[in-house]
Amino acid sequence: MTGKGPAVGNNISHANNKTRRRFLPNLQYHRFWVESEKRFVRLRVSAKGMRVIDKRGIDVVLSELRARGEKF
């Protein structure tokens, strides 16, 4: 929903050796009740995405996802 993806960086050891690593977003499956459709919708959203849904409302977010052609 928020478009988050893995970020890349380095693991740095005590000896200052650097190896590549990935920072993964905090994605969770969550069921949201959609009052207008009288059903639950299961979305895989980040923790920040849940805050966005709380702020803007699930109906607004779902309409934007449908406009982008996202499947859920």
From TrEMBL:
Keyword Transcription: no
Organism field: Pseudomonas fluvialis
Gene: rpmB
UniProt keyword Endoplasmic reticulum present: no
Family per record: Belongs to the bacterial ribosomal protein bL28 family.
Family matches, as InterPro entries: Ribosomal_bL28, Ribosomal_bL28/bL31-like_sf, Ribosomal_bL28_bact-type, Ribosomal_bL28_sf
GO cellular component assignments: cytosolic large ribosomal subunit
Record keywords: Ribonucleoprotein, Ribosomal protein
Lineage of the organism: Bacteria, Pseudomonadati, Pseudomonadota, Gammaproteobacteria, Pseudomonadales
Record's protein name: Large ribosomal subunit protein bL28
Superkingdom classification of source: Bacteria
Gene Ontology BP annotations: translation
MF terms in GO: structural constituent of ribosome
